Amino acid sequence: MSNPLLNLTSLPPFKQIEPSHMVEAIETIIQDSKVAINELTDKLKPDSITWDNFVKPLEDINDRLDRAWSPISHLNSVANSDEVREAYNACLPLLSDYGTEMGQHLGLYNAVKALNGKAEALNLDSVQKKILKDDLRDFKLSGVSLSDDKKKRYGEIQKRLSELTSKFEQNLLDATMAWHKDFESEDALDGLPESAIAAAKQTAEAAGVDGYRITLDFPSYLPVMMHANNRELRQEVYTAFSTRASDQGPNAGKFDNSDLMPEILTLRHELAKLLDFEHYGELSLATKMAQSTDEVMSFLTELASKSKPQAEQDLQELTDYAREQHGIEELHAWDLAYYSEKLKNERYSISQEELRPWFPENQVIKGMFEITGTLFNIKFREREDVDTWHDDVRFFDIYDLNDQFVASFYIDLYARRNKRGGAWMADCVGRRGTTGDVQKPVAFLTCNFNGPVGDTPALFTHDEVTTLFHEFGHGLHHMLTEIDHASVAGISGVPWDAVELPSQFLENFCWEKEGLAKIARHYESGEPLPAEKLERLLAAKNFQSAMQMVRQLEFSLFDFKIHSEFDPANPNRIQEQLDQVRQQVSVIQPPEFNRFQHSFGHIFAGGYAAGYYSYKWAEVLSADAFSRFEEEGIFNPKTGHDFLTNILQKGGSEEPAELFKAFRGREPSPDALLRHSGIGQ
Q1: Known catalytic residues?
Q2: pTM as predicted
Q3: Are 241 and 352 in contact (CB under 8 A)?
Q4: Which pLDDT tens digit goes with each residue over 485-539?
Q5: Residue (of 443, 336, 456, 362) closest to 397 by Cα position
Q6: What is the pLDDT of residue 1?
Q7: Domains and CATH numbers, the chain
Q8: How many angstroms separate the CA atoms of 332 and 314, rounded?
């Protein structure tokens, strides 16, 4: 059978893709790409180069590789197997070598320089000029100007980092899947909501065992921590979860990321030095909105100083409550979520579990489409004739109000074995102009929620609904772009600390009465969320928000410090630096065995290295952007249109600071974020 990955011009035929196709496709396309690029750069002379004879054919070449790699990478995340993993890992060094070679390709570099020098003469527009400026920056960051020996070392580092970060993620997936606890009777799960017990029974059945099974997948882990009356069970599950892929816990040393982290940090530091940066933090900021390490550190420490007093108050309230109402003299890490949920219920008479019946999957999706359709003048149609990687996956097309096709997306909502945890959006196909046409974007939207149980549809917590809206915000950023240049269309070319703006912005509609009216309907009766539950949900919005704020700041500061204060003579300071950050900003000190860093995939396996602060940075932008909707009406068509045209459609074609100012009419202010979080009010 021919290889379906070699010449993808439509959606990936997932059921035809075999692990044996993956390496062959990547090897073939890389070889073809090298030949095509060399031919292109050899024949182009500086005086004859134009946008159409250089950039457009280069986009065609790059798109072929992107189209093949996207389903391979996606299958590794959502349908992992030994064979897929082996093929995926075999592709990584090929891609790393190719990326390094192209980043240091003098023919390409000289062609970009020549075209940039002719930008005015050729009447290139502002978007084209920005692309060339970004390309020249990226060539520098790829080591194009380095000596040959340093170029060689650059390539070695990149290849090794690719291997290490992939291994980190695989260790985490294996460690998560390796642990479970089975129960013969549901009595052992006393306190857990019916939905969690039903899910535990279904998980056991799927594994071919009787009774009930708890795993470390988040939809299984979290209900135990929040609701299990058995304190020892909570301790056991917390210990297993917080020691994943480490030298501690029930599988100590088995999937251990301990040695990978210092090597990753060492190589990132060496890479930064090769490129004449002081440290990796500086290198990271070369492509971000923030201008300096001092600016990032000041931003984080200022938020911490405003949040910590209230966080300390939140913790004291919880401590007093657990002692006075439940006789708990000392709160342990495995007690916090449990007693927080009890206090929240007592104070507001509301719980995540109680709300599930009002958030059935189909209603949530229908409401989300209504909200975004109203805001951005789009509509959605589900298709069932699309090849997918699992029967749970759904597929939708987006149209404008004139019935013109805009984009498509896959949505994969449920947790399952061999699927990595968390939630994310990834691009399947990017938008770009082609000969006489426009290639329309396609997105992957992935979550890890509990699926249907028996005849009951999938019922989401309000937190899960917010997560879905977050990822859909990323998706809309990718899909609603009107930029026809691949490198700055959608989320491409958007600085990492601005890319969370649309996602966090969309979350706000989950907290508005008018938004919730569209999302929440009881799965049996179709009744809207009762007024008293709605009021209690909104009243509880900022419960322990300061504690949550300092927790995120702890992650952000830890990430930035280990990258910007790295000492190659002492690479094993990770735990020490984490402890220092916790002393500075945290109000909760976890137990000594906690190895949070060993599962911090965002920075050791994802794209957030020296960039986790981006969540808070973008949260300032998103809260301030939404404050305009609060002032003008959350479904105000003009405000929605302005957000669409100034933010979503523009992608990476302009600097985010300028796009924000065009939408908001001023520089961003942190006041809205603090107000939305109920901090310092």
Answers
A1: 471
A2: 0.91
A3: no
A4: 999 999 999 999 999 999 999 999 999 999 999 999 999 999 999 999 999 999 9
A5: 443
A6: 63
A7: 14-103+105-141 (1.20.1050.40), 179-242 (no CATH), 260-350+545-612 (1.10.1370.10), 357-529+615-676 (1.10.1370.40)
A8: 16
